[in-house]
Design brief:
This protein has about 160 residues and is of the alpha/beta class. The chain has a single domain, classed as Rossmann fold (3-Layer(aba) Sandwich). It has a seven-stranded mixed β-sheet with strand order 3-2-1-4-5-7-6, sandwiched between helices. Strand 6 and strand 7 form a beta hairpin.
């Protein structure tokens, strides 16, 4: 895919006013990119590592988006503030025979509003294509910069 097509895909991904859940946010770069992509984008970032959330909070402040970027420690399977998401973005770990990936999928399913989309970055798209097709529609994979981006839409 050309850089121009990559940029077109990224631009259509986060329209103005989107509510985005950055699932497994790590240091927060994906959520920052989403928040800065268009006007009035609100990001809720979740991770199981307190250090990652501290880094994401600091990064949001440094990028001037702290008022549109909230963080939550993933505990007990709750998605506080992430419900009603237009878009869930995730890059789950590749180990654990997809047990962690399944947790990410379940979080995404609870968070997505009707018509909402999930985009998962992976080097193993086959599992996500099959798993997401059980509960979501318009499941497909696209190559983007050497990775597969599996996307699906809530019915």
């Amino acid at each position: 895919m050309s850089d121009r097509k990559d940029m077109e895909l990224i631009a259509e991904l986060v329209p103005p006013g989107s509510r985005v859940l950055d699932l497994g946010c790590g240091a927060g770069a994906v959520g920052f990119a989403a928040a800065l992509r268009a006007a009035d984008v609100a990001v809720h970032a979740i991770d199981s590592m307190p250090r990652a959330l501290d880094c994401a909070s600091r990064g949001a402040a440094a990028n001037g988006i702290a008022e549109r970027h909230s963080v939550q420690l993933a505990a007990g399977g709750e998605v506080r503030g992430g419900g009603g998401s237009d878009l869930v973005l995730a890059n789950p770990p590749y180990y654990s025979q997809h047990a962690i990936a399944e947790i990410f999928v379940r979080f995404a399913l609870r968070a997505l509003k009707p018509g909402g989309r999930v985009h998962v970055v992976t080097k193993q798209p086959e599992w996500f294509l099959e798993r997401l097709a059980r509960d979501l529609a318009q499941v497909r994979a696209r190559e983007l910069r050497g990775y597969a981006v599996v996307e699906a839409r809530r019915k």
